[in-house]
UniProtKB/TrEMBL annotation:
One Pfam family in the UniProt entry: GST_N
Signal peptide segment: none
Lineage: Eukaryota, Metazoa, Ecdysozoa, Arthropoda, Hexapoda
Name recorded for this polypeptide: Uncharacterized protein
CDD domains, per database record: GST_C_Theta
Amino acid sequence: MSLKLYCDLISQPSRTLYILLKTAKYNFEPKYVKLAKAEHYSEEFTTQVNRMQRVPVIDHNGFLLTESVAIVKYLAREKIIPESLYPVDSKQQARVDEFLEWHHIGLRLHCTTYFRVKYMDPLFGKKMEEDQLAGYERRMVQALDVFDKKWLGQGTEFVVGNKVTVADLFAATELEQPRMAGYDPKEHYPAIATWAKKVQAHFNPHYDEAHVILNKIVKKQQSANL
């Protein structure tokens, strides 16, 4: 069997799948697609890999699949990832799915948008008024408040219970993204900081491996602001 993962580790869901496959000790081939160089818009990628021009994508013995949540569910059915991370039990699995459904609009939309307007857009010469930028930050903070109080504030150790699942990994990689734009959720939310440390420890060394590029960008940004 062969599995290829088309990804860019600057992408949150790409990092999630990379870490997940590494944790599962599954033999896969990373196929890096450089988003900064618009390789996902190339004719080859569009026609042969993903017509939607996005990563991540998997190629599992010729079966191409896009969308990170769909990929996780497929990998679980194929027994590629541990049941502990995506439970077989119907109710436990439903709780994980409940978070993954909320995550797209509830968390990812706001963290990703803030990262894009604060960090990415200026790289391409796009400028935004301070009051507009403040609005994006406010919406992201509101999303973080919900995550902090209504997901982590339910008396459990992790997002959907007392065991790590893919829900935690999706959330953790997402909350790394605004760090590149100068906002680290862990510095503002003690509960998030405690939870994130546990998630990182669970998935290490692969978690740190997947975030090498991101951490270099963060360090470079911090040095530039000194």
